[in-house]
Design brief:
The complex is a heterodimer. Chain A is an all-alpha fold. Chain A has 20 helices and two strands. The chains are: A mainly alpha, B mainly alpha. Chain A: Keywords: Cell membrane, Membrane, Transmembrane, Transmembrane helix.
Chain lengths: 445, 322
C-alpha cells in the first residue's frame, strides 16, 4: 500500500527503510489513502483478462479497505509511547480472558461448543501458525511438513504421560526439547537446499513421521495412544458466583482444574503458552537473530557475504519453529487424551501454512488473524461442513490472485513480495511482459 | 529378510519397473513445469486423478461385460489413454489459466504460487470427493465410499522363465511409458514449440526478446504435462484397477521424488528417476515389509537431495537453480 506510485526501479531497501521509520512514505493522511483505492483496484483489474475484470475490481474494492484500516492502526501504534502500548496489551489480554464467555460463544459458534473450539482448533492453530511463522515468515524457509513437530510433541506427551507417568509440566519441557532436537535433526542435512526443494523434503519428512507412527507397535500403530493423563490441577479455586462473574460467564468455573468436561481451563493454559511464545518471538524479531533472518530471507548469498552465519541461523529458525510446534502438540495431547497418527495429516501442514500466508507472513498479528479465520470459519459455517475444504481451497486460489501478501502483511515483507524477493524469488516476473504490476503502476503515472 | 529378497527378485523387479513407468510419466509433468516456471505444480497430482476418472468414465460408457485380451485390449487401452490424456491436458491448461496465470502476470512471489497450487489441489480433490463422485456414481454423500471399477484386463502370463513371469498388463505399462517418453523427447527436441520450451527454460527474458510467445509456451508445457499424466492415469487404471479422489496425492509426491531423483528439468532424467524409484520402492518393501514402502520412497528423496541435489542425470532443461 505504501508503494503508491513507486516504480519497479525503486529498490526494496528504500521501501524497507520507509517501513522501518514507521511512517508511510509521505502518503498524506488516511483520507488520501482511501481516495486511492478505486484507482488501485482499477489498476489491479487491468492486469486480469477482460472477462474477469469486474470481479477482480469488485473483490479488490472489498479487500483493500482492510489494508487501509490496518495501515492507519499501524501508523497510530508506531507513534504511541510505552504507557499507551501497555494499556493496549492489557486490554487485549483482558479480552482474551473473557473470550470463552457464553455471550460471545453464542454469536461466534452456534453449532459447536465455543470453549472447546477456542482451545482447538483456534488456539492450537494460532500457536502452530506463530511457530511456522518463525520458519516461513521470518527466515523465509518453506516448510510443508510442519505438522511433524506437532506430532512429535503430541506423541511425547502420550508416551511420557501414559507409559512413564510423568506430569504435564515436566513433559512440556521435554517435549519442547525433543521437538527442537527433531527440528535440528531434520534441518542439519536439508537446510543446504533452497526453496521448493526444502519444501518437498519437509513434506516427505512429515509423511515419514506419520507413517512411522502408524507402523510402530510401541505407540499402537494406527490405533494410537489413548488414556493420556490431563495436566495436574494447579488449584481447586473457582470463581465465586454472582456479579460480575455471572456476566462474564465464568461464575463457578475453576480455571486451574483440568477435568474432562470443561474446555476453559485448557483454553487458559493454551493462552498462557501463546502469550509466552508471542513475547519470545517478538523479542527475537527485533534482535540480532531476527535481523539475520530478514537478511537471509531477502538474499541468502548477500547475507552470507556480509558475514551472517546463514546455516546456523536457518537451523535456529527450524529448531525454534519446531519447539513451538512441539509445545502445541504437548498441550493438545494433554487435553485430547488420545491421539492417533491420522491426527497429523499433511492437510494440517497445508492449513497452517495457508493461515500464515493468508494472514500475512512475517507479521504476528496478521498470522494470528489468519489462523483464527482458518480455524473458525469452517466451524461457523457448519452447514457447509461438507464443502468447507472445497471452499477453503478455492478461497486460497482467489486470495493469492488478489492479495498474495495476505490480509495484514508486515510492511517489509510486502515490499519484498512486490519485488519478488523474500525467500523464493518471483514467479516469472521476467516473463510477465508489458503488463506486470510494476509496469502497470509505472504506466499510470 | 534378504532371503525373501532373493526369492522375489524378478517379480519385484517387474513390479518396480511397471510402477516406476507410471511415476516417470507423472514426473514428466513436474519436470516440464519446473523447467519452465521453476514452480512445483502441486496440483499436478490432481490432474492425474482427473485422468483416472476420465478413463473410468470411458470404461463405464463402453460397458464391458467380460475382461478383454489381445488386440482388443490394446485398442481399449489406446482409447482410454487418448480420452484421459485429452481430459487431463485440458484440465492442466485450465489450471494454469486460473491458478497461475494471474500470479505470473503480476510477477508474484513463488510462495504465493505454491499456496495457490495447494489451494487448487484441495479444491479439485474435494470437488471430486463431495460433488462429482456422489453425483456420478450415485453414492450417498455422507459415505466416503469410493467407486472401484472391475478389472477390465484379462491378465495373461506372457513369458515365463522358471519362476520369472511377465504379465501382459505390466508389460503394457512399461512399453506405454517408453513410447510416450520417446514421442515427447522428439517433440521437445525437433519441433518449433519444443524449441520455444527449451529456450524459455534456459532464459525466459532472452526468449521473449527472440519472439517466443511465453503464454503459449507455458500453456503448451502444462498441456504436455497433463497429457502425460492422463496416459499414466489410463495405464494406472489398467494396472491397479482402482481409483479414488486422493489417488493423486501420494503418487504425486513420489512422482516429484522421481523427477528430483533423475534431475529435475531433465526429460530423460524423469524416466531414469521414475524407474529407479519404482525399483527401490519394490525392493524396499520386500526387504522391510510393505508397510514401510512409502517411508523408503521418502527416505530416498531426502538422501538424494542431501547428497546429489541435481539428481542422477543433472538438471538440463534449465540453468542452475536460483
Amino acid at each position: 500500500m505504501t508503494d503508491n506510485g513507486n516504480g519497479k526501479g525503486n529498490a526494496v531497501l528504500t521501501k524497507t527503510a520507509a517501513a522501518e521509520n514507521g511512517g508511510n512514505g509521505g502518503n498524506g493522511g488516511s483520507r488520501g489513502r482511501f481516495a486511492g483505492l478505486g484507482e488501485r483496484a482499477r489498476l489491479r483489474a487491468a492486469q486480469s483478462p477482460v472477462w474477469a475484470r469486474p470481479v477482480v475490481m469488485a473483490l479488490n474494492l472489498v479487500f483493500a479497505p482492510f489494508g487501509v484500516v490496518a495501515d492507519v492502526l499501524r501508523d497510530w501504534w508506531s507513534v504511541q509511547g510505552r504507557g499507551m502500548r501497555w494499556v493496549v496489551y492489557g486490554l487485549l489480554v483482558l479480552f482474551a480472558l473473557v473470550l470463552p464467555s457464553d455471550v460471545i460463544g453464542d454469536v461466534m459458534s452456534p453449532h459447536t461448543e465455543w470453549q472447546t473450539l477456542l482451545f482447538f482448533p483456534i488456539g492450537g492453530y494460532i500457536l502452530l501458525a506463530i511457530g511456522l511463522n518463525v520458519v516461513v515468515g521470518q527466515a523465509g524457509l518453506l516448510d510443508l511438513g510442519y505438522v511433524a513437530f506437532f506430532a512429535v510433541g503430541g506423541y511425547t506427551m502420550a508416551i511420557f504421560g501414559k507409559y512413564h507417568g510423568w506430569n504435564f509440566w515436566e513433559i512440556l519441557v521435554v517435549g519442547v526439547l525433543i521437538a527442537a532436537l527433531s527440528g535440528i535433526v531434520l534441518g542439519a542435512p536439508t537446510l543446504r537446499l533452497r526453496g521448493d526443494y526444502l519444501a518437498i523434503v519437509t513434506l516427505g519428512f512429515g509423511e515419514i513421521i506419520r507413517i512411522s507412527a502408524q507402523n510402530w507397535d510401541y505407540v499402537n500403530g494406527p490405533n494410537g495412544i489413548s488414556g493420556i493423563p490431563h495436566p495436574p490441577n494447579l488449584s481447586e479455586w473457582s470463581f465465586p458466583d454472582g456479579q460480575p462473574w455471572e456476566f462474564l460467564g465464568v461464575a463457578g468455573m475453576s480455571p486451574f482444574t483440568y477435568g474432562a468436561l470443561d474446555g476453559r481451563p485448557y483454553y487458559y493454559l493454551m493462552l498462557v503458552v501463546i502469550i509466552a511464545v508471542i513475547i519470545f518471538c517478538k523479542r527475537l524479531e527485533n534482535s540480532r537473530v531476527g535481523r539475520s533472518w530478514a537478511a537471509i530471507r531477502e538474499d541468502e548469498d548477500a547475507a552470507e557475504l556480509m558475514g551472517v552465519p546463514t546455516f546456523k541461523f536457518k537451523l535456529a529458525a527450524f529448531a525454534i519453529g519446531a519447539a513451538i510446534g512441539g509445545a502445541a502438540g504437548v498441550v493438545y495431547g494433554s487435553q485430547a487424551t488420545s491421539i492417533i497418527p491420522n491426527n497429523f495429516p499433511f492437510i494440517l501442514s497445508a492449513t497452517i501454512l495457508a493461515a500464515v500466508v493468508l494472514g500475512g507472513s512475517g507479521n504476528l498479528p496478521g498470522v494470528m488473524v489468519g489462523a483464527f479465520l482458518v480455524a473458525w470459519l469452517p466451524e461457523y459455517f457448519r452447514g457447509l461442513a461438507e464443502y468447507r475444504i472445497l471452499i477453503f481451497g478455492g478461497a486460497l486460489v482467489v486470495m493469492m490472485a488478489l492479495r498474495p501478501e495476505g490480509i495484514l502483511p508486515s510492511r517489509r515483507r510486502q515490499a519484498e513480495l512486490a519485488e519478488g524477493t523474500g525467500g523464493m524469488g518471483s514467479l516469472g516476473a521476467e516473463v510477465g511482459g508489458p503488463d506486470t504490476h510494476a509496469a502497470a503502476v509505472e504506466g499510470a503515472k | 529378510m534378504f532371503g525373501n529378497f532373493i526369492d522375489q527378485f524378478w517379480p519385484s523387479t517387474i513390479d518396480g519397473l511397471s510402477l516406476g513407468a507410471i511415476y516417470a510419466l507423472v514426473a514428466l509433468g513436474y519436470t516440464m513445469v519446473y523447467g519452465v516456471l521453476r514452480l512445483i505444480n502441486f496440483a499436478h497430482s490432481e490432474i492425474f486423478m482427473i485422468g483416472t476418472f476420465a478413463a473410468l468414465a470411458t470404461l463405464n460408457a463402453i460397458g464391458l461385460s467380460a475382461p478383454v485380451g489381445g488386440l482388443a485390449l490394446i485398442g481399449l487401452v489406446l482409447m482410454l489413454a487418448v480420452v484421459a490424456g485429452l481430459v487431463s491436458g485440458a484440465s492442466a491448461v485450465a489450471l494454469e489459466f486460473v491458478a497461475y496465470r494471474p500470479l505470473r502476470r503480476r510477477g508474484a512471489s513463488r510462495l504465493a504460487a505454491l499456496i495457490s497450487a495447494i489451494g487448487a489441489s484441495l479444491f479439485l480433490q474435494q470437488l471430486f470427493a463431495r460433488v462429482l463422485i456422489p453425483w456420478w456414481f450415485d453414492l450417498p454423500k455422507e459415505k466416503g465410499a469410493l467407486p472401484i471399477p472391475k478389472h477390465f484386463t484379462e491378465t495373461v502370463d506372457l513369458l515365463s522363465i522358471g519362476d520369472f513371469i511377465i504379465r501382459n498388463d505390466k508389460l503394457f505399462v512399461i512399453l506405454g511409458a517408453i513410447v510416450m517418453m520417446i514421442a515427447l523427447d522428439q517433440f521437445v527436441n525437433r519441433t518449433q514449440l519444443g524449441r520455444g520450451i527449451r529456450a524459455t527454460a534456459q532464459d525466459p527474458e532472452t526468449a521473449v526478446l527472440m519472439g517466443v510467445n511465453i503464454d503459449r509456451v507455458v500453456s503448451a508445457t502444462f498441456m504436455i504435462g497433463g497429457v502425460m499424466a492422463g496416459v499414466a492415469a489410463a495405464l494406472y487404471l489398467m494396472r491397479f484397477g482402482e481409483t479414488n479422489y486422493f489417488v493423486g496425492f501420494l503418487l504425486g509426491i513420489k512422482a516429484f521424488t522421481a523427477a528430483v531423483l533423475g534431475g529435475i528439468g531433465n526429460l530423460r532424467g524423469a524416466l531414469v528417476g521414475g524407474l529407479t524409484l519404482g525399483l527401490i520402492e519394490m525392493y524396499g518393501s520386500v526387504i522391510f515389509g510393505s508397510a514401510w514402502q512409502d517411508v523408503v520412497a521418502f527416505s530416498v528423496l531426502v538422501l538424494v537431495l542431501m547428497f546429489r541435489p541435481t539428481g542422477i542425470l543433472g538438471e538440463s532443461l534449465q540453468q542452475a537453480r536460483a
